[in-house]
Write a structure and sequence with these properties.
Elements (H helix, E strand, L loop, with lengths): L2 H39 L1 H45 L3 E6 L5 E4 L1 H7 L3 H5 L3 H4 E2 L5 H9 L7 E6 L5 E13 L2 E10 L1 H22 L9 H18 L2 E10 L1 H8 L1 H17 L6 E6 L2 E9 L2 H16 L2 E3 L2 E3 L2 E9 L6 H17 L5 E3 L2 H23 L2 E10 L5 E12 L3 E3 L1 H11 L2 H21 L7 E4 L2 H5 L3 H12 L6 E6 H7 L2 H17 L2 E7 L7 H5 L4 E4 L1 H5 L5 H16 L3 E4 L5 H10 L3 E2 L10 H7 L13 H7 L3
Parallel strand pairs: 12-13, 15-17, 17-18, 18-19, 19-20, 20-21, 21-22
Antiparallel strand pairs: 1-2, 1-6, 3-4, 4-5, 5-6, 7-9, 7-12, 8-9, 10-11, 14-15, 14-22, 15-16
């Protein structure tokens, strides 16, 4: 039984006792009248009157005793109930139902309000309770309609002006003939505060889960829930939706050379610029790393998306100043448009990503719009990757060898080991078709290891057959140097086959050298190459002149050989610029004591000019095409006679007597 119900029951019992006392008084009055009447009748009447007086006295005494006992008991009960009311933690206030004036407050209620009992007696309900910005009349109406079954959520106004969240239940009572309202209040401010904290924590966790902590932009989890809804809205509204995929160019170089802190600040500035150059209802999302996605909503024409992507390129082309240092970054952007390029999130993201890679292939810092041709190229690339994996498993690869020829003596002074792929259906696959895919997918590492193992096995077999060994050059991809296992693998294989390190040369393109020459990872690669050179293995830079052509690494990286790219040799006879470039390369290499090998020699005039410029070693179809190990073995067989100086070089190699 609730406290208000107990108070109501107490008042009912009091009323019943008072009614009993009145009835007892009436009975005494009747007995007294009857006694008086009998006394007037005579002696018998006197006796009867005496008896009635005696009974009246006994009854009156009993009634008085009962009343005295009742009121003593009642005072004890009232004291116990008052003690309960005074000690309860819930605040209790009783007000007049007509005037709403406070009649009673228990200590808990007074303590919460901050008033004394006398001060509280001057208050009315609107002085005590509030409901935000609601008017006093509205609050009073809610309090009048409150009942004991359903708690009313409201606020309690304290003396110091503070508002406390409470729950209120109301009971209507009859106190001494007056209607009063008894309000039992329960403080829920702590619970509400805890609930609000839980809500805030949940919102914070939700934001952490759906927003990038570095830039504050929505992340890929947000995109997963947002983009399908945006597509549905675009379809319902009959408008287009643009998905722009952005990848920063050479961000890893900045991140590694300047440090991760600078890289983070750069990403924050890029995020701010992206938000500034799109419309208010467009959405910028950081996918992770240096990748961003911009969703252009409510698009009426294709030009809106391409112009927005152009603004992105323009804003990134402006230097970004970080800690007083200007940094230059660009972006490669790919575009897909709903509904033309896809009907769902997966297709749109895939196609914009495909277009972005096409932008990178076309020199970076440009915008490409997805087209079905790109999709076909992507499918071809995926099919090529699957075929490469199958070729590795089925051992469809082989190693061919192309000679290096001394332009003065016309002798073979070295070989280049080249991977060849003979497909069972498509025949011989050109290296420029599968090598780039192998490098992108990481398959170049097992393929490079295959070439290394096969080459050293072949060299060991040639030596066992009594052939004259010459140094063999192998192409090494940057990914092989990253693994950190190349040195130990080569060292083990050389010992296994009993070959000297001087018989091996590693080739690496200068573009690959500079792409990898980045802070920590670059230093590790440089250290790996330095240790290989200390082991006795020669280091060559392939396709020299087509990459960054920085001369500093010729000293710092301890290069042994430069291979002049075939693009300079091809027009050497007719183009004076190519002649000047080749002449300069040879002169620099001579002064640095670096050997020079000219690639792509296909004519006698080219060989003669190179020889006169001081290049002593050449390679090209003029001398020999790449050939299997068995055919190459014939060129390495011991010579029975020296060729005449004026003998035709092409015929010499064709005869196998070189």
């Amino acid at each position: 039984m609730s406290f208000p119900e107990r108070v109501e029951a107490l008042l009912v019992r009091r009323s019943a006792l008072l009614a009993g006392a009145v009835l007892a008084g009436c009975a005494l009055f009747l007995l007294f009248g009857l006694t008086y009447r009998e006394w007037r009748r005579g002696a018998f009447g006197w006796a009867l009157a005496g008896l009635l007086v005696l009974l009246t006295g006994v009854l009156a005494g009993g009634v008085l005793f009962a009343l005295k006992r009742h009121f003593r008991h009642q005072r004890s009960v009232d004291a116990r109930y008052k003690a309960i009311i005074d000690q309860t933690n819930d605040g209790i206030v009783i007000v007049d139902s007509a005037t709403h004036q406070v009649q009673y407050c228990n200590p808990a209620f007074l303590a919460r309000l901050g008033y004394t009992s006398d001060e509280a007696a001057a208050l009315t309900l609107p002085d005590i309770f509030a409901d935000g910005t609601a008017s006093s009349e509205s609050v009073l109406a809610r309090l009048r309609n409150a009942d004991s079954r359903l708690a009313l959520n409201i606020q309690q106004r304290c003396k110091n002006g503070a508002l406390i969240d409470i729950e209120v239940r109301c009971n209507t009572l009859d106190a001494d003939g007056r209607d009063v309202l008894a309000y039992v209040t329960h403080d829920v401010s702590v619970r509400r505060k805890a609930e609000q904290q839980l809500i805030d924590n949940q919102q914070r966790l939700d934001r952490m889960a759906h927003h990038d902590q570095l830039t504050g932009l929505p992340n890929r989890h947000y995109l997963a829930s947002f983009l399908p809804q945006a597509i549905a809205e675009a379809a319902a509204g009959g408008v287009m939706l643009g998905v722009v995929f952005l990848d920063l160019d050479r961000f890893k170089h900045i991140n590694d050379t300047r440090g991760h802190e600078t890289g983070d600040k750069l990403l924050q500035e890029v995020a701010a610029r992206l938000q500034a150059c799109v419309r208010a209802f467009d959405v910028v999302i950081r996918m992770g790393g240096d990748e961003f996605v911009v969703i252009f909503r409510d698009v009426k024409s294709y030009d809106e998306v391409t112009q927005g992507a152009g603004r992105i390129i323009d804003t990134l082309n402006r230097p970004i100043v970080i800690d007083g240092h200007p940094l230059q970054t660009t972006g490669s952007v790919g575009i897909s448009i709903f509904p033309r390029d896809g009907a769902d999130m997966g297709e749109l993201l895939k196609h914009s990503d495909t277009a972005m890679y096409q932008a990178k292939d076309r020199g970076r810092n440009n915008v490409q719009v997805f087209s079905p041709i790109m999709n076909r190229k992507l499918k071809q690339r995926v099919a090529m990757e699957a075929s490469l994996r199958e070729a590795l498993r089925l051992k469809q690869f082989d190693v061919h060898y192309q000679p290096f020829v001394n332009l003065l003596t016309r002798k073979i002074v070295g070989l280049e080991a080249l991977m060849r792929w003979h497909h069972p259906v498509h025949g011989m696959i050109p290296a420029d078709q599968f090598i780039p895919v192998a490098e992108e997918t990481g398959l170049i590492v097992p393929m490079g290891n295959f070439v290394l193992h096969r080459t050293l096995q072949t060299m060991s077999a040639w030596r066992g057959a009594g052939l004259e060994l010459v140094p063999v050059s192998l192409n090494v991809a940057p990914a092989q140097l990253q693994r950190g296992e190349l040195q130990s693998t080569i060292s083990t294989l050389l010992k296994t086959h009993g070959l000297k390190p001087e018989m091996l040369q590693l080739e690496m393109t200068e573009r690959a050298v500079f792409d990898s020459n980045q802070a920590k990872s670059g230093e590790n690669r440089q250290d790996t190459m330095a240790r290989l050179r200390d082991l006795g293995i020669r280091i060559a830079i392939d396709d020299f002149g087509t990459g960054y052509s920085s001369l500093s690494y010729l000293k710092n990286w301890r290069v042994d050989t430069l291979k002049i790219d075939r693009s300079f040799v091809r027009d050497l006879v007719t183009d004076s610029s190519d002649l000047a470039i080749v002449s300069a390369i040879i002169a620099i290499a001579r002064h640095l004591q670096i050997q020079v090998i000219a690639e792509g020699i296909e004519a006698y005039q080219q060989a003669e000019i190179l020889r006169k410029l001081g290049c002593t070693v050449g390679q090209g179809f003029l001398f020999a095409r790449p050939m299997p190990a068995e055919q190459c073995a014939a060129l390495l067989a011991p010579k029975t006679a020296e060729p005449e100086e004026e003998e035709d070089m092409l015929a010499l190699f064709a005869s196998g007597r070189a």
